[in-house]
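Suppose a colleague, Dr. K., hands you the sequence of a protein chain of 89 amino acids and asks what its three-dimensional shape might be. Before reaching for any lab equipment, you can write down a predicted structure in token form. Begin with the sequence itself:
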Amino acid sequence: MRTSHYRAHDPTPEERAFIYQQIQEMNEFAPGLEGLVVTVEEKAKSKEKPKRFAVTLVLGPKDLGLQLRAEADDIFTALSVVKYEAKES
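The predicted structure, expressed as tokens, is then:
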């Protein structure tokens, strides 16, 4: 689901810790998941637009294949939105 405007983002240690924490919380409300993939992408900053982040979450089992994506000005907000949508699904 990656667009050409975004590229892979290498999270900082703080961002990685937050991602790990959110995954642990998702495992609590969906303990039977066979797989969970989180991708983080960034859109380069320009004079007109600030940096944007996109977080994509893919949840298993294989037959479910739920894929959620959120975009925000920071990773923390994007991941929080994706986690909320996953919980509601």
